[in-house]
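From the pipeline queue, job 12 of 40. The input is one protein chain; the requested action is below.

Action: predict structure.
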Amino acid sequence: MSRSLALSTIAWAVLGAVAPAPPSQADEADDQYAVAAGHYTRQRWALAAEQFHAFAERFSTHAKANQARFFGAEALVQLGRHHEAAVGFRDYLRREPDGAWARPARFRAAEADYLAGKYDSARGDLERFLADFPDDDLNGFVLPYLGSILLSNEQYEAAEKHFRDALRRFPQGKMQDDCRFGLARALDRQGQTEEAQRLYLAVAAKKGGSLADDAQFHLGALHYAAERFDEALVAFEPFESTMSDSPRRPMAQLGRGWALFRLGRREEAARAFESVAADAQVAVEARYWLGLTRKADKDWDAAAQTFLESVREHSDHPLAAALRFHAGDCLLRAGDLPAAAAEFDAVIRGAPPGNEWIDDAFRGRVLAALRADDHAAVERLAAEFDGRVAESPLRDDVQRLLARSRLGRKQYRRAIEVLEPLVEGRAETPTADDRFLLAMAYAGLDATQEALDALQPALGSATGELRADVRRLEASLLMKLARYAEAGAVLEQLRQDDATNLADLAVCYAKTGQLEKAQRAYEQLVNKAPDRELLSSTTEQLAEAAYEAGDAGRASQWFGALADDAQAGQHQIQGLSGLAWSQYRAGDLERAAATFGRLLEKGPPPALAAEAALARGQILEDLGQMDPALSMYDAVIERYTDSEPYSQALWAAARLRDALEQDREAAALYERLAGEFPQFAAIDAVLYGWAWSLRDLGQEEESWALFERLCHDHPSSSYRADASLELARRAFDEGDRPRARQLVGEVLAGRPRDDLRGNALYLSGQIAAADERWDEASQAFEQLLDEGPDESLRLLAEYGLAEAAFRRNDHQAARERFDRLRRACQGRPERWLAVIPLRLVQTLCHEKKWSEAYEIAATIEAAYPGFPEQYEVDYAIGRCLSARADFEAAREAYRKVIRSSEGAKTETAAKAQLMIAESYYHQENYEAALREYLALEILYDFPALQAAALLQAGKCHEMLGEWKEAAEQYTLLLKGYPESDLVEDATQRLAAARSRLP
């Protein structure tokens, strides 16, 4: 885990406490404290630590001395001088155990010890802090620190508890990634790899995160340990690209090499090992595995040289014995017996007792002696093996080599003394004279192929009664291997009056598609009145074979016989299952649902119950019985989480609840499915459904994240266009128009379905409009109209075209379009439609058709109460009234703009303020105009209008004969708004005003 600091929790939260005192209040001590605090607030940690320490030493009785000690220690934390910081915090606590900073000081002292690696003292202080202040937000750091300490002590369950507690209590805390990573490691060590994998993925996905490379590496290690070597390769791949500068890279390359080696891609593995063979961190391990790779390629000389070079340079390395053994083994395979013996002897004599390679070296040394015909050495070494490593699993192999040595010397009795115990139970394979009973033992262990292989020597040599038994066993083993044609040929040669032979023969006929012969053999079997178990078992196998062959009649007949046999035990359950599936395959859904129901009532094994419940749920859903279907899916989800149908039940339940608008339940199921089955076949559909469920629940951020994930992880998904359009809308709403444009372009380029294309075209027009690319916007809206959208999009597109004309100052076209829209929408109450008459009014104002504009504007507020842009309407009304010189009424309209909650402080309000001032100016009420102009400059933040107000204020002063004041306004304009278009006019007026001054 990274050692994160709780910096923002303490250091920045108390800036007010360390802020310098006003100069008028400062004496020498205050000045020095202010200097220290100034360094601290500017993050000059070394100077801050120095100055706080000097202050505390020099002014030890000052009211802020202990505060200085605390913040001095804080500065030391930021410098990474953790031991000194811990001493400083404890000094503060000794002086003020109940002081204002006592609680954070207790935490910081413990944290500093933790960061200094003093886990024992840190653990005690952290646990006491947690006990004394259970609700403190600093526990967002305390809990993961404790978890990390417990993890290092291999107390994985306790560590897991602390990490989970931290995530539960502080899900958005600064240590959330540390907690997820620590929890993943704790779970990984406890064998809970599925959840560990999800957590590693979550942390690794945060690009640039301090723990991303650690999590990515552990993810690769987890996959490798689980023998998911392809996934391990994928996990280690970022260390070749985005994480190439990570300190984890050498180990990741080593892990990558291991995975490639395990996958048989040895040439690539060798390159991976070679790439880090000179890295001090992993050099020995890399060369070791490079040697193993060359050894696997049977390049004995190169492999031996690799092992020997490494062990010569690192003779005291823990892998030294392994390196020597493999060097010896390669030399042995290359035929260099003396050199091989020397390396094996080095392991046997030099490795410490208990080293895992001693027994391998013994075996290699015995083999080298045997190949050199040094039988005395074989005897001596085998005896020494028994004396030193008798419990080794290699003992049988050494004994076999000893037996070969004795056989070579024709010491047969002594060879039998070695071989007989091996044949009787300790050997991996029997000797050449393997017996029938040994094959039977293998068959009893379900080692079928081994049993058949062991039986082969007896097939040609067994005679009499033994031969029949051997042949009967041969047929049984062939059936287990699904070699039914061969088994049937054997059974046809055996006695047909034996019920077992007849039953197996019927099964072999059925399995090879000879259902007529199977039927006849079965009828013969029934006539012989076999025991119930044999008959039931045979019936079940025949039914399954008929089902697989597509013979619905025989399958239903045989499955039905079992289903109706209350004495058939588990075979009745299989009969019900087979009958239900046969009915389902035949399209008889209601009967299939009923039969699956009968099956579930029998309490079948969990796997079968889960399969039946899922199937019944799907059938009920097809029949339109939604609630019973959900009950079936829920039964699988609640009772059979370890079953294969579990994921399908989650999927079916999620989709059905989604369709029934049970959004909360659907979202939970989608989340569960995505979390537990990230490789689910329809994972893109899962993410899509989950995203919409969250959207319907108002959880928009989570919904966006899922749409992003869908597009990123599943670029070929059929849902990508929908998701991309949603992301485009979001980007547009958030003002990220370049991304919105990119996404909507991708949607349109992909030839989406008609409804999606219509929405994408409309959004494209919106984006262009927002960027004031009005020609492009018009083109998009016109294209949308040409393609015949639905009525809602048609209206929006028509509005978009009218708006584009308005923005291009094509007032006649805009007026005509808005007028048509106004008439078409007359009487409709939607509030946004008020924009249409507003735009019409604004267009008329541009054309100075004041009476028409006023007549329409005066009706908008009553027609569309609560219209958010009513202030724009009022501004237009003010302009109309001003045009007819009704200044008082105009000013009242402008004041409505300024006072409105939506319009206040907008540019329109600033313009209204300016128009109020202008109205007084036109009435030559210069004093009133002056007040309004100056109010605009103070209250609003629109430079062009503020500059205009100052210029007009100067003119008012001129009209009042106040030349000094006029000059002041022009000077303010020039200094405050040097980029204004009015600078030249202001400069001339300033000169003129100054010329009038005495």
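Job complete. The chain is about 75% helix and 0% strand.
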